Amino acid sequence: MQLFKYSIIFVLWVGTCLAIGKEDHSDSFEALRFVQAIQGQLPSQWLESPTHWRNLAKEAILSKERQGPLEAVAKNGIFFIGDGMGLTSVSAARVFKGQRDDGARFGEESSLHMETFPYSGLSKTYCLDTQVADSSCSATAYLCGSKARFSTAGLSPGVVFGDCRGQNNTNFHVSSIVEWAQREGKSTGIVTTGRVTAIPGAANWAGIAQRSWETDADVAESGKNPEVCPDSGIQLLRKEAGQRLNVLLGGGRHRLTPVEKIDPETNSPGKRTDGRNIAEEWLVMKEGQSGMARYITGRDELLGLNVSEVDDLLGSFAMQGLPWSDELERDNDPTMQEMVQVAIKILSKNPNGFFLFVHGGKIDSAHHANRPGRALREIVEFDKAVKTGDEMTDDLDTLIVVSADHSHTMGYCGYNVRGNSILRHSIIPADDGFVFSTLNYVNGPGPAWTNPDTGLRHNVLLDNTSNPNYELPVPVPLFSEAHSSEDVPIFAK
Ligand SMILES: [Zn+2]
């Protein structure tokens, strides 16, 4: 189908160039050269026949027919959010996975596990007061069911950014899906590759008028009184949804512990200035509830747990967010898959069922840094966690939803030959004589698009694009690449 579509585009394009005028030799010549170059790259015997494509279409329709409605009340729910995983990211990650992992001939024909789910849709993501969402207003929307103001979490529109008084007004607090699950007698858990006290996870228990308020020091840094504006760490201990949360796994030890406490693994102090140790206080609180609570900081401890002896688990494996997925082993940090596995084992002991929220935060970090290779790797890791969640549960009693909170400016373009590495560039130069990358960001901290001395565009041919830390050059300089407001996908089963 893809090939058919592109053939049509090429034919129309060539036709248009020829029709514009016989004088326009350069355009038509370039277009023909382009088509010939593309077609010359792929031997026709490699390309699938019409029968292949028609059989695929038939199988897709038949599988929908066989699927039929599944009418039951879900006992368990797992909600996966790929932070910043817009539609373009999903398309590019599919090709990346196909080319790197699947042994696919070209890559484009592969699928992520989330894409095999029987139901899909699209979601708008704007905030109550901004065109483009951040991860906290959107968290309030998809976890609490109400749009919120930019950079606030777990609070209704009555609270503006940084409004302490509003934050303390219980009329402005909005409940979350974690609370609703707890009211139904279900176990609840959160897994994140970010900090455990950060949004979006924290929006499940906390209401904060400024998303950075994870410790008293953060509140003070913003010029507010921490005794008046409780941070998300304190709210984990004070708010009922936090107190009743069974599993909380991720990074962020720096914000759980006081400055006086030197972390034995990293030899660095905590961030809290009020002397509170949230991790230790959580453990004491949970021991009082279930008597089967654990606080862990390493992957080996996580994998060595006897889950029959653990009902409540706090794991904070890194001082900040977890490292990139290919650096986890170096730091004795678990993968998303491993965290999801242990979380489900503990939560599923409850006969009433469970709700688990899983947040893939590294996708967003990579996009913000203009690193497409990193972003695609992190989506593939996220997808493995989705697959684990799917394999460990039964479709008859478990609802799984996978979505994103917003998108990024990454585009996926150029008429490259099928199977061209998704991280590389076009085969035909642009009008300035330089080739261009298949993936591009509109803005961000990457190197300048144009050399200020020569006025020439950055030559990506000279770049090592397979290095995961490679940063794409950008036309608009910005300290951190900006989110985008394109709709995001929803996959469900
Ligand atoms: Zn972001």
TrEMBL record:
Binds 2 Zn(2+) ions. PROSITE patterns: ALKALINE_PHOSPHATASE (PS00123). Zn(2+) binds at residues 83, 364, 368, 405-406, 483. This is Alkaline phosphatase. The lineage of its organism: Eukaryota, Metazoa, Ecdysozoa, Arthropoda, Hexapoda. It catalyses: a phosphate monoester + H2O = an alcohol + phosphate. One of its GO terms (molecular function) is metal ion binding. Pfam families: Alk_phosphatase (PF00245). Belongs to the alkaline phosphatase family. CDD domains: ALP. It comes from Folsomia candida (Springtail). The active site is at 135 (phosphoserine intermediate). Its EC number is 3.1.3.1. InterPro entries: Alkaline_phosphatase, Alkaline_phosphatase_AS, Alkaline_phosphatase_core_sf. The keyword rRNA-binding does not apply. It comes from the Eukaryota. Keywords: Hydrolase, Magnesium, Metal-binding, Signal, Zinc. Mg(2+) binds at residue 83. PANTHER family: ALKALINE PHOSPHATASE, ALKALINE PHOSPHATASE-RELATED. Its cofactor is Zn(2+); Mg(2+). Residues 1-19 form the signal peptide.
